[in-house]
Amino acid sequence: NTTIKNFKDLEGKKIAVQIGTTSAEEARKIPGAVVREFNGVPETFMELKAGGVDAVVNDLPVNQYYLGQFEKKGDAFAKLATTELKNAEDYGIAVAKKNTELAGKVNKALETLKANGEYDKLYQKWFGKKQ
């Protein structure tokens, strides 16, 4: 399908989303869209592959990861149509509130990985090109 290039092109289309996500909230705002909610991301892509929906709306790194996995298996049945940000959010890592030592170690490790360029390499490996 080459007709879907942005959110406006999703008007009147069938869209798969993961239950309880901001992606689901944004998809429900698209005029005329039929939004189908699934428990997890794998199910959204299975529905796309089966032809039950026209698109999957989800977080960019998650979509990049799944599309990359299909590509590696020689099963590239879908493509990334847009990286348009409707509701940009940061990701977080949760640790028990009382475990301040672990939180400090996680934060320090992330700082180190970003400073030495390893973070970008890992991102590229698992999610593809950074947008």
- β-strand percent reads 5-15%
CATH superfamily of the largest domain: Periplasmic binding protein-like II
What are the segments in which pLDDT stays under 50 over at least 5 consecutive residues?
none
CATH architecture of the largest domain: 3-Layer(aba) Sandwich
Order of helices and strands: EHEHEHHH
Strand arrangement within the widest β-sheet reads 2-1-3
Range of helix content: 40-55%
> Could you name the CATH topology of the largest domain?
D-Maltodextrin-Binding Protein, domain 2
Mean pLDDT: 88
* Computed CA radius of gyration, to the nearest angstrom: 17 Å
Number of strands: 3
Oligomer: single chain
What structural class should be given to the helix and strand makeup?
mainly alpha
Largest sheet: 3 strands, parallel
Shape category: globular
At the first level of CATH, what is the class of the largest domain?
Alpha Beta
What's the end-to-end separation, in Å? 22 Å
Total count of domains: 2
Question: What does it look like?
Answer:
The structure is a single chain. This protein has 131 residues and is mainly alpha-helical. The chain folds into 2 domains: 7-72, Periplasmic binding protein-like II (D-Maltodextrin-Binding Protein, domain 2); 92-131, no CATH class. It is 43% helix and 9% strand. The protein has helices spanning 22-28, 41-50, 60-72, 100-115, 118-127, and strands spanning 14-18, 34-38, 55-56. Strands 2-1-3 form a 3-stranded parallel beta sheet, with helices on both faces. The mean pLDDT is 88.
